[in-house]
Amino acid sequence: MFEALRKMIFPIIVITLLFFVAMIVLEWGLSFSSSAQYGDPNVVAVVNGEEIAWNNFYSVYNNLYQQESQKRDGDVPDDVARQLEDQAFNQMLHDHLLMQQVRARELAVSDTELFSYLQMSPPAYVQSIPDFQTDGRFDYQKYLGFMLNPQAGPFWVQVEALARQDVLKLKVQEMVISAAVVTEDEVRQSFIANNEKVTVGAANAAYNDFIQPRPTFTDEQIRAVYDSKPEDYQVGERRTLKVAMIEKVASEQDEETARQEIQSIYDSVTAGGDFAELARVRSEDTQSAINGGDLGWFPEGQMVDEFNSRAFSMKDGEVSEPFRTQFGWHIIKHHGYRTDTEVPRGKTKEEKVRKAHVSHILLRIQPSPETLDNAYAALTRFRTLAAESGFDQAAAETGIEVKTTQPFLKGTGADFLGPDAEANEFAFNHEKGDLSRLRDTESAFYIAQVGDILPAGRSPFEDVKQRIESEMVRDSVRQRCWAKAKEVHDLVINEGVTLKDAASKAGVPYTSQAPITRQGFLTGIGRQPEVIGAAFGLTTPGQISEPIEWTAGGTVLELIQRESPDLSTFTEKRDSIYTAIKSAKQQELYARWYQKLVEDSEIINNLERNRNLQDEQQASL
Fold this sequence. Notes:
Elements: H1 12-15, E1 43-47, E2 50-53, H2 54-72, H3 78-104, H4 111-120, H5 124-127, E3 133-134, E4 137-138, H6 140-147, H7 153-177, H8 184-195, E5 197-206, H9 219-228, E6 234-235, E7 238-247, H10 252-270, H11 275-282, H12 286-289, E8 294-299, H13 305-311, E9 323-325, E10 328-342, E11 351-363, H14 369-389, H15 391-398, E12 402-404, E13 408-409, H16 421-429, E14 439-440, E15 444-454, E16 457-458, H17 461-495, H18 499-506, E17 510-512, H19 529-537, E18 548-550, E19 553-563, H20 570-600, E20 603-605, H21 606-620
């Protein structure tokens, strides 16, 4: 059947698009870092003895990079580029491991299967081809027409090669997830769990309601806890970093350039220029720019103060002079006022609300390429001086501020840098005094130096004193809450009062909750499983639960009403419930299978090796 398709002709330039296949992205904690330069060895990875060429990696990475570059309209920071490399490596690894499974299982694809796949499930890389689209969207009828066109042979030969691999990988995945079985009892129980409802009253002694007066402890009491638990308060090896950082912020010159530019736009408007057209072309508020800068109608107080005061003091048709807000430089054109009768946000009653209608042009204040180049050059000089004379001397000579992080653990964030995986990896893979390469992140340029190395062991008392005290306060308040919940329960049982009256007598808030399902939310409590479980454990209206201890309080419940699910609707919902359960099971099954496949495979990662070599070379400069 597919043989006939091989006789067709199609523009060869389109074929190159087919090789940028959008593969499934799976991140399994492989934690590969990245680098913009690649070198020897000649293969990016060896997977179970099979070599993968760098070109395979490049084709995936370059596609991801181009997509990211288009999103950012240009420059991609180093840290984002490295994340893309990790993503590309993981995609490539996933693809290669699946094809190894194809060969191991001796799977094959018939022409009938291949034709059916292409006909019923056109791959994304085919759907994205402009010749199969109408008004920028995939046109299935146009696609079918090409499939039946007896003049597209070379194109379908290329598609066949890619699609055959797609189907083979799908066969592996289907073999794995076919073990996911859903019983009729699971479907019914899921239906009941999602449709059975209870209405309860709750006497809830919540942590925040009973934290005052705040418990206090002496140093001796806190130390006694510290000394009584020699196995607790252990800490792994920690490191510090010295950081020389220049943030990517606009300079005074950038500010002045933006001011002059907005002034020139204002001059064009006052000289008769079309405000809407200028907004479409020049405004950096992309959402409103496509509508000629139109912000629509809005009430007073919705915008930031400076913008708000201008918008509600101008006359219909007036154009404001340029003014500055936290977002940048603006020009406003006013289109008038109106008064609506509505319920304002945060209120409960209708009232008359005055609204303004304006358009604006926004120029954001951003660091120019020259400013960024100057910052990069300054840190490059800093690194040279630091390598020659030391970090502190470089700071003294350049005037660049050096900050030292608090000690941090492997795999955690650091002060000033946040959750920067490369900074953490550098800190724990280098010796004291080693210098990092010059890092380019989305918000700053920086250079780091490994500072103190604190060995693993028991934390000094002073380091954990505050933590122990916080734990003691939390435990003490939770005991208060638990005691209050028991007091409420005892009043109901021993004195025969209602739960509401018992709560009032004990000084605990009582709330009558709305009906909830097992996935529901209790006011003041949330989705605490122990409380929700206790609510559904009540069977008879008026029944009182035992005191329930949860993370932020103690609670006693009473059943007000129990609503059984309407089983007459089960049949119509059965298939969707079955599909949802099966899909969740399949995803979990595949995730565990692939994780095990990675763990059992021998993977040599030369991308990671190259990065480490480059870091060592940078540190030795």
